[in-house]
Amino acid sequence: LAPLALVPFFQLSTVYFAIKRKKWLDLILVVTFNIRVCLMYVPLMGFKTFMIYYWLSRYLESSWFIWVSQMNHIPMNIDYDKNKDWVSTQLHATCNVNQSVFNDWFTGHLNFQIEH
Question: Which superkingdom (predicted)?
């Protein structure tokens, strides 16, 4: 259940931090985006179908993004004590993932993270 709870949590966190940090333009943009999406899709799908579509697509998008972005960064060790330059530190903190037809398609070629 935790991954399912993350998407609404991050949605609410965005609104919370916009209010807390007094980022009123960001808050207005988030709220108006969600209103526009509702106004566009609810008449076409009905509220219940829209909610299923909206949250399922957000969940799939979030899961895909985590897989793609983290598979290049998590396996690497970062040494802060080495006093290396920025480029060397970035190269040590990331890695490429083996090339395959699936990896190329699934990641949109972000499996070549060093080159990216």
Answer: Eukaryota
When divided into structural domains, the chain yields a total of 2
Q: Are 79 and 68 in a shared domain?
A: no
Phi-psi sector, 83: left (phi>0), alpha (psi -120 to 50), beta: left
Domain co-membership, 58 together with 78: no
Phi first, then psi: what are they for 99, rounded to 5°? -80, 135
Are 67 and 92 in a shared domain?
no
pLDDT tens digits, 28-67 = 999 999 999 999 999 999 999 999 998 888 888 877 877 7
Question: Is residue 60 located within the same domain as residue 78?
Answer: no
Residues 82 and 69 in one domain: no
Q: What contacts 68, CB < 8 A, 6 or more positions away?
A: 106, 107, 108, 110
What's at 82, amino acid-wise?
Answer: K
Using alpha carbons, list the distances in angstroms from residue 70 to 63, 76, 82, 92, 95.
11, 10, 23, 15, 10
The pTM of this model reads 0.57
Report the residue count for the chain: 116
